[in-house]
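User: I'm designing a mutation panel for C40 family peptidase and want to avoid disrupting the core. Could you give me a predicted structure to guide residue selection? Please restate the sequence first so the numbering is unambiguous.

Assistant: Good idea. Sequence first, for numbering, then the predicted structure tokens:
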Amino acid sequence: MWYNLGGAQWIMAKYTVDASSSDSSTSKVSQPRVSVATVNYVPGYGIAVWNNYNNPELTGKILPHGSSWRVFAEATDSNGELWYNLGGAQWIMAKYTRGGSSNTSSSSSVSASSNNGSSSSSNTTQATTSAAAKVVSLASAQLGKAYVWGANGPSAFDCSGLVNYVYSQVGLSLGRTTYVQVNNGTTVSMNNLQPGDLLFWGSASAPYHVGIYVGNGQYIHAATPSQGVIKQSISQYFYPSVAKRVL
């Protein structure tokens, strides 16, 4: 069973509850208490835009620190986190913003259109590049640490624990296991890799290993208990099965 939310927007009914229920935990979309939100994260970096506030997936958009966006609605997810809707299937976590002026132009709302203007496009590109640089720096800082199955850091990691730890530092929640992480972002060609892309080995839908591409044909990963976190070059003898762009 699926529910239509208007136009080409559908959700699976099994992940919802009756909005008319008396259950106080029911999450509902409501009118926002702020008309504009300003990204308040680490200067030089941005926050991710998600397609929903419950069971969200990344849209691939990054909003730069200090930028302001019109808020059309707000909602609280099942964990009690407040989210802002920026129009359509575009949501951000309210905790990474501060209330802005209601005089900001509505044209600053997020759009997939190429007509947003060169300034907005440039800001987004710069934010993505900065986020990738931070990911590479954070991953590099883990080199030499131990591999421990199930470890999430910061002193030891397994492969997906390393990815979860590094990307959480730039505001991205990619999930804890390779099976979840591979569902984030967009698939990219191995000939078109960029720093910050994820490399997976094994089945494209259920991989057993993951690493972080850092440029120059190299990646950082929590390899094995005997190797720990290391940097390696992509090899034909251990070639990734799929690459995903999440920044």
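For picking mutation sites, this is relevant: Confidence is low (pLDDT under 50) at residues 19-26, 100-109, 111-122. Residues 2-108 form a domain with the SH3 type barrels. fold (CATH 2.30.30).
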